[in-house]
Write a structure and sequence with these properties.
The protein is an alpha+beta fold. It folds into two domains: 138 residues, Penicillin-binding protein 2a (Domain 2) (Alpha-Beta Complex); 330 residues, Beta-lactamase. The protein has 19 helices and 23 strands. Strand 21 and strand 22 form a beta hairpin. Helix 3 runs antiparallel to helix 5.
Length: 579
């Protein structure tokens, strides 16, 4: 009996021993499996329980004018967010937040009830709003530091500089074009959490400065301001719909001012119609009208063996070309090449091209950059339109010679005119001159870049002399005569094309373009007025704005006067030739 009990006890002990041994082996095997094969997965899972990655984006770079005056800056600002799982009474929280933030409670409640662990309540709140929400002391509401883009000069060069969205990404203008340079890089933090989910330590993954790079523009705030002011006055005085004005340095291609009207404030861009957001001086082509006659004259001198005193018969103001009729504002008989430009004769321009041939005009226009992009460092540039001379009809020869049937951007037009001022050398226009890093060191610079010799220096000098006749008391640009400075210029009046491709009755684009002083041009200026209603002649509508911009800019740049007493014989407006 004792032996049976003994054997039974041994059996039980053996079974229990085997059971515990099997358990121990299983535990060891499982531990080995987890340690050897699942170590990475377990480490990651554990880290997720006590570590929380935080991403911080550096400040966006500053945009300066040519004199390092701030045009666009980034400032620190607080955004309000919520950890939804920590908010027990979402109705109460939504109602309280709505009162403090002047928002609808239903929208906030919907956000808090979205099921997402983290939600934004209001991005980039005002200090007053942040204080009000902090005073509520609602558990689960957090306050995160972000960066906000601010434009201290408000409307100044707004379409050129552009603006950013709520996430700090460039949406228009230079902000968009140089977004990769301006935006700060992302920097990662690891925040350690305790059992209650509260952070108690943080370690930055990188110690490098993660702010964006800065831009230094060619824009001069002073020139930009006076250009915008003169443009606004011209648009308002003529009851026009809009306007564009530009100031360029002919020798370098640097743009000192690029103005638009109506103005927009990039600090609140959503309040403005989207059609006024873009930089229309670069993106929108238009028919330049009679300003093209200076390039027709350039073709005549360069390729047609014409001189300023070469004469053409202008058919007394009316000339039939097939089924079409070309008209002049006034009836002219024989006119010299100079007089055709001075009095802006359409028939004379047609006669010039008939003499030199369409190919010569086409080649000259291409050399001046028409029909192709300038390559300026700004987004959305149009190439305009210039059909091959091989496809020109007989009437096209005439219309293109005086600026119809061809389209160009304001930038192309001022660049081409600057080439005449620059002894025939076409320069690539540019808006940004330097990119700086966070330490102020130059990363990349942009400077004068010759494109090609559009016409010979001799031809350019001849055209300058012809263009000075436009700004005399008898010329179409009499309103552009400056006090103390010689000036070259050309008026333009073009009928607008509507959406159907036909010319709209009573709708015009009036313009004036020129440069000064003639002997050593410091600035070229273009003024375009869209749909003026009181008068549509470029010499009446746009030339006075040119004069204001030129006179004040030359004074600001300390350019010494080169004439003592300009010819100031008073002539009634009705007796002058207009275009």
């Amino acid at each position: 009996m004792k032996n049976i009990k003994k054997d039974y006890m041994k059996l039980r002990i053996t079974i229990v021993g085997f059971f515990f041994a099997a358990c121990l082996i299983s535990i060891i095997a499982k531990a080995g499996y987890l340690q050897i094969y699942q170590s990475v997965w377990l480490a990651t899972k554990a880290a997720h329980q006590y570590e929380r990655p935080i991403k911080e984006t550096g400040k966006r770079g500053t945009i300066y004018d040519v004199n390092l005056r701030e045009i666009a800056v980034s400032i620190d600002i607080t955004s309000i967010a919520a950890y939804t799982s920590k908010i027990e009474d979402k109705d109460f929280a939504a109602n309280m937040l709505a009162k403090s933030l002047n928002m609808r409670a239903s929208i906030i409640k919907s956000t808090l009830s979205s099921g997402k662990p983290f939600v934004w309540i209001k991005r980039k709140a005002t200090p007053k709003e942040v204080y009000a929400v902090k005073s509520l002391d609602i558990e689960g509401i957090c306050f995160l530091s972000e960066h906000s883009r601010v434009y201290p000069q408000k409307t100044l060069a707004a379409q050129t500089v552009g603006f950013t969205g709520v996430d700090g990404n460039g949406l228009e203008g230079l902000e968009f074009y140089y977004d990769n340079q301006l935006k700060g890089s992302d920097d990662n933090f690891i925040v350690l959490k305790d059992a209650l989910g509260q952070g108690f330590n943080a370690e930055k993954s990188s110690g490098d400065n993660n702010n964006g790079n800065d831009l230094v523009l060619t824009i001069d705030q002073a020139v930009q301001y006076l250009t915008e002011k003169a443009l606004q006055e011209a648009v308002v005085d003529s009851s026009a719909t809009s306007g564009i004005a530009m100031v360029m340095v002919p020798k370098t291609g640097a743009i000192l001012a690029m103005a638009h009207y109506p103005l927009i404030n990039p600090n609140s861009y959503k309040q403005y119609d989207k059609q006024f957001w873009r930089n229309r001086a670069i993106t929108d082509p238009f028919e330049p009208g009679s300003t093209m006659k200076m390039f027709t004259a350039s073709a005549a001198v360069e390729h047609g063996d014409c001189k300023p005193d070469t004469v053409f018969f202008c058919e007394n103001g009316q000339y039939a070309v097939g089924k079409h009729t070309i008209h002049d504002t006034h009836p002219y008989g024989w006119l010299t090449l100079t007089e055709i430009v001075k009095f802006s004769s359409n028939i004379g321009a047609y006669k010039i091209v008939k003499k030199i041939g369409p190919e010569a005009l086409y080649k000259t226009l291409k050399n001046f950059g028409f029909g192709e992009k300038t390559g300026i460092n700004c987004p959305g540039e149009t190439s305009g339109f210039l059909a091959s001379y091989k496809n020109w009809r007989n009437i096209d020869v005439g219309t293109i010679s005086f600026g119809q049937g061809i389209s160009a951007s304001p930038l192309q037009l001022i660049s081409a005119t600057s080439a005449i001022a620059n002894n025939g050398l076409l320069m690539k226009p540019f808006l940004v001159q330097t990119i700086l890093d966070q330490k102020g060191q130059t990363i990349k610079s942009f400077g004068p870049t010759p494109v090609r010799q559009a016409v010979s220096p001799k031809t350019a000098d001849t055209i300058k002399k012809i263009l000075t006749s436009v700004t005399t008391k008898e010329g179409t640009g009499f309103n552009a005569i400056l006090d103390g400075y010689t000036v070259c210029g050309k008026t333009g009046t073009a009928q607008k094309v509507d959406k159907t491709g036909r010319y709209a009755r009573g709708k015009y684009i009036s313009s004036f373009i020129g440069f000064t002083p003639v002997e050593n041009p410091e600035i070229a200026i273009l003024v375009i007025i869209d749909e003026p209603t009181k008068s549509h002649y470029g010499g009446i509508v746009a030339a006075p704005a040119f004069k204001k911009i030129a006179q004040e800019t030359l004074t600001y740049l300390n350019v010494p006067p080169n004439i003592k007493e300009p010819d100031r014989i008073t002539v009634s407006r009705e007796s002058r030739v207009l275009s």
